[in-house]
Structure formats: structure tokens, C-alpha cells
Design goal:
The structure is a single chain. With 97 residues, the chain is mainly α. The protein folds into 2 domains: 10-55, Orthogonal Bundle (Arc Repressor Mutant, subunit A); 58-97. It has helices at residues 11-22, 28-35, 39-54, 59-96. The longest helix has 38 residues, at 59-96.
């Protein structure tokens, strides 16, 4: 059985990785995949960064993240409804012709 060695990342690499998520809008999963790191590791770096920036525990960011997730879900539902209405309008336009 071989022992796995832990990878070490420089502070600059971590800062750049966090910047992808926070500043450039990548999802944690996508940024982690592109950088070749575990999602949980990048998520931990982002939480630590947010705590350092806000000076408080991650509660404020958790609330903001929850609101963002709620809004994304709402946008997804509205897009589905819009697509259905487009198809219905096209159907009825064809029927009335």
C-alpha cells in the first residue's frame, strides 16, 4: 500500500483560485476542476477568504449564497416558463393561420 502525499499550494495559487470564484464568477466546482484541485479544498479557501474580508464568521456570506441560489432557481424556472409560452404562441399562431 502506498502512502499518498499531500499536495501543497502556494498562497499566490490559492489567491488566484479564490479570485476565479469570487471575482470572475466561476462556480467552485468548475474552478476546482479546471485547476485540478478538490472542490472541497477550493470551497474551504473561499470560505476562509470571505471570513478574512468580512471580519466575521461566514454567516453573512452564507445568507448571501442562499439568496443567490434561490434567485438562480427562480431564473431557471422563469426560463422554462418563457420557453413554454414561446412554443404555445407558435402553436396557436400556426393553428389560426
Amino acid at each position: 500500500m502506498t502512502k499518498k502525499t499531500r499536495r501543497r499550494f502556494s498562497d499566490d495559487f490559492k489567491a488566484d483560485a479564490v479570485s476565479l470564484v469570487i471575482d470572475q464568477g466561476y462556480s467552485v466546482s468548475e474552478a476546482a476542476r479546471r485547476l485540478g484541485v478538490e472542490r472541497s479544498v477550493l470551497d474551504r479557501w473561499c470560505r476562509k477568504h470571505r471570513q478574512q474580508v468580512s471580519g466575521t464568521p461566514g454567516r453573512q456570506w452564507d445568507d448571501r449564497d442562499a439568496e443567490i441560489n434561490k434567485l438562480r432557481e427562480e431564473v431557471r424556472k422563469l426560463q422554462i416558463e418563457k420557453d413554454i409560452l414561446k412554443k404555445a404562441a407558435a402553436f396557436f399562431a400556426k393553428e389560426s393561420s
